[in-house]
């Protein structure tokens, strides 16, 4: 970080979020304490490994914030007017994130002591800082929620993934057992999918998987879960459904795909696919692994019987 030339400019400082509506007399004193610094693109301004005694205000360029590692995706971008380093500045701990210049940037640097003195004089600045921190907390909470939801969803098909299956099975198997209700599991596998990929291309195969996911999910109740279990394998958890009814549901799903002879996709019109299904009903003290193993054995049988059918 190199010192940069900066002509002290009260108006410019008043436009920074932290100093908005702060009395001119208070800022006048502070103006002499600012040090302007130049950052090259890619230069690390703050790192969790280095203690921080400064607050940085961005007056030119753009900064990116990374959590955990610089190899992760940036969690946020700081624009002109934003500040960096306020968390470590307040709690006097190491910075909680990396802050890196996205392109050549200029920051104003203030030592903590200069600012602490101003805090005593300016409730407005305290309020600005609190608002800024609240915004950061809310943004952080939103990111946690998004990443939690994303962690349960398969990105190609939008179905739940295996992580969610473990979670939902725990909940639904306990609930069904407690209420003396049945619970069934269907294991579905797209037929001859390797040949489909070979013939129409992997991208076409991806669209076929999306078709399967969409066709199946549109026929399920909100309390059912459709999970992409692996490549071209899906699992459906059917709470409060015994095997006879589950057989009916599985059949209906199988036929609905069988009836789609072709569909439109971004790579053109593609042939539909069929599925084979294995069914298992939960038994007392069944584990998820046990239930899946029985549905998988039934699926194997369906494949042996010529595919596009349901066993179990
Ligand atoms: N397009 C695409 N293909 C996938 C995906 N995941 C797995 N596959 C393919 O699915 C195919 C599965 O092939 P196999 O396990 O041999 O089964 P199959 O050809 O469907 O034969 P049967 O199951 O016996 O009917 C493989 O070629 C995988 O590459 C995916 O996300 N997209």
UniProtKB/TrEMBL annotation:
Cyclic nucleotide-binding domain segment(s): 18-136
GO molecular function: diguanylate cyclase activity
CDD domains: CAP_ED, GGDEF
Domain of life (superkingdom): Bacteria
Compartments reported by the entry: Cell inner membrane
A GO cellular component entry from the record: plasma membrane
Entry-linked NCBIfam families: GGDEF (TIGR00254)
Entry protein name: diguanylate cyclase
Organism: Ectopseudomonas guguanensis
């Amino acid at each position: 970080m190199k010192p940069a030339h900066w002509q002290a400019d009260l108006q410019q400082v008043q436009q920074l979020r932290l100093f908005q509506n702060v009395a001119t007399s208070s800022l006048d004193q502070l103006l002499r304490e600012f040090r302007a610094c130049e950052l090259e693109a890619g230069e690390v301004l703050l790192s969790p490994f280095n203690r921080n005694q400064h607050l940085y205000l961005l007056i030119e360029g753009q900064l990116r914030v990374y959590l955990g590692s610089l190899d992760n995706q940036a969690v946020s971008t700081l624009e002109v007017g934003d500040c960096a380093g306020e968390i470590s500045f307040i709690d006097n701990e190491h910075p909680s994130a990396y802050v890196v210049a996205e392109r050549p940037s200029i920051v104003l640097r203030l030592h903590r002591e200069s600012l602490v003195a101003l805090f005593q004089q300016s409730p407005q600045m305290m309020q600005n800082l609190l608002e800024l921190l609240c915004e950061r907390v809310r943004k952080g909470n939103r990111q946690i929620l998004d990443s939690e939801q994303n962690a349960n969803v398969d990105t190609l098909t939008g179905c739940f993934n295996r992580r969610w299956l473990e979670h939902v099975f725990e909940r639904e198997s306990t609930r069904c057992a407690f209420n003396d209700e049945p619970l069934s599991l269907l294991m579905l596998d797209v037929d001859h999918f390797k040949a489909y990929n070979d013939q129409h291309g992997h991208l076409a195969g991806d669209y076929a998987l999306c078709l399967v996911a969409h066709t199946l999910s549109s026929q399920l109740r909100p309390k059912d879960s459709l999970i992409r279990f692996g490549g071209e394998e899906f699992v459906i958890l059917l709470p409060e459904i015994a095997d006879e009814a589950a057989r009916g549901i599985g059949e209906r799903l199988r036929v609905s795909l069988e009836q789609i002879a072709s569909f439109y996709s971004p790579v053109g019109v593609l042939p539909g696919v069929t599925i084979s299904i294995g069914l298992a009903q939960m038994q007392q003290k069944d584990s998820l692994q046990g239930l899946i193993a029985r549905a998988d054995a039934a699926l194997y049988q369906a494949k042996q019987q010529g595919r596009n059918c349901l066993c179990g």
